[in-house]
Amino acid sequence: MTLKERLKADVVDHMKAGNKTALTTVRNVLGEITTREKSGKTPIELDDAQVTSLLQKEAAKRRDTARIYTEAGETDRAAAEVAEAEIIEAYLPKALTREEVEAIVDDAIAALKADGQELSMRSIGAVMKPVTAKVAGRFDGKTVSEIVRGRLA
Predict the structure, then answer these.
(1) Which of 12, 79, 107, 136 is exposed most, by the fewest CB atoms within 10 A?
(2) Contact yes or no for 42/30 (Cβ under 8 A)
């Protein structure tokens, strides 16, 4: 079951359960997915990685809005935004720890060395490609790049 199919199935579940906040949030996210798919010259079908990226952006948007509401003294609105962010984050894959990412980077470097490649700072792209595929939205890309640079230096 794809992430998009899971979201659609959960709309029905939230309707039956009478959970209005979750229902509205999931419907809004599905609307955003549909908008992204239909925008542009040719319609496309978002895959799970693209949907995950979109979910991360939506959750971050809501967290940012909650922070603004909190600064403005609107605690009720801030709490509603945080609740929506938590609902969206439940669909995201479990985030990786720095240690897990470092292990993935070390494995990628070891695999490239086993293939007989000489690794230097110029081969950052060769290391980043397999690492990015494994990490895919579960850890900050800039930090991953810094880890790779540190290992290659």
Answers:
(1) 12
(2) no
Q: Burial code of 21-50, b = ≥16 C-beta within 10 A, e = fewer?
A: ebbebbeebbebbeeeeeeeeeeeebeeeb
The domain in which residue 29 lies consists of: 3-89
- Rounded Cα distance between 123 and 132, Å, is 14
Total structural domains within the chain = 2
106 in helix, strand or coil? helix
DSSP, res 153: -
Q: What digits encode the pLDDT tens for the residues 56-109?
A: 899 989 999 999 999 999 999 999 999 999 999 899 888 888 888 888 988 888
CB atoms within 10 A of CB 118: 8
Residue 19, domain CATH: 1.10.1510.10
Note the pTM of the prediction, 2 decimals. 0.71
Among left, alpha and beta (phi > 0; psi -120 to 50; other), residue 40 is left
